[in-house]
Amino acid sequence: MNTRSSGQNGGDDGGEAADHHMSDYDVFLSDCPARTALDLVADTWSVVVVYGLGRGPHRYSELHARIGGISKKMLTQTLRKLERNRLIERRVLATAPAGAEYRLTPLGRSLLGPVTVLAGWAEQHAEELAGDDD
User: ω before 114 within 30° of 0 (cis)?
Assistant: First the structure.
């Protein structure tokens, strides 16, 4: 599977892409594994959950109460997806009744910077992006 661009394979692309080389993957190629990563973090709920966990661990009920508009089913699916991809971890608490909390893993914390910038940009430009329905 070729997931590298010609510039990344040593071809001459004018130098600009080579100057910005960050990995061996090229998201412009259809079979690039980095697209899976983009798909994972590009949905609204994943971004909001990662952003929400940025200030520390939270229980499921705290996340559900904090994230307006998310159904319990969607929150559960999002948490499972993020856990499966090692962005968050679920820790069972020794409480009665039994509970669990979710926290960012080191990999998830590495995503927090870009997610915070994206969330800030969205909040700053929300009115412009909403358009004029008049």
Answer: no
pLDDT at 134: 52
Contact 9, 35 (CB under 8 A): no
Looking at mean pLDDT, say which of 39-53, 57-71, 110-124 comes out highest.
Answer: 57-71
CB atoms within 10 A of CB 73: 8
pLDDT band per the 50, 70, 90 thresholds, residue 124: very high
Q: How confident is the model at residue 32, as a pLDDT? A: 86
Using CA atoms, how far residue 62 sits from 49, 59, 123, in Å, is 11, 5, 22
Q: Tokens 């590009």 sit at which residue? A: 42
Distance CA(64)–CA(58), nearest Å, equals: 10
Helices (H) and strands (E) in the chain, counts: 7, 3
The distance of Cα 67 from the centroid of its chain, to the nearest Å, equals 15
Distance in angstroms (rounded) separating the CA atoms of residues 107 and 87: 6
Rounded (10°) angle between helices 44-52 and 106-124: 110
Mean pLDDT over 36-54 rounds to 89
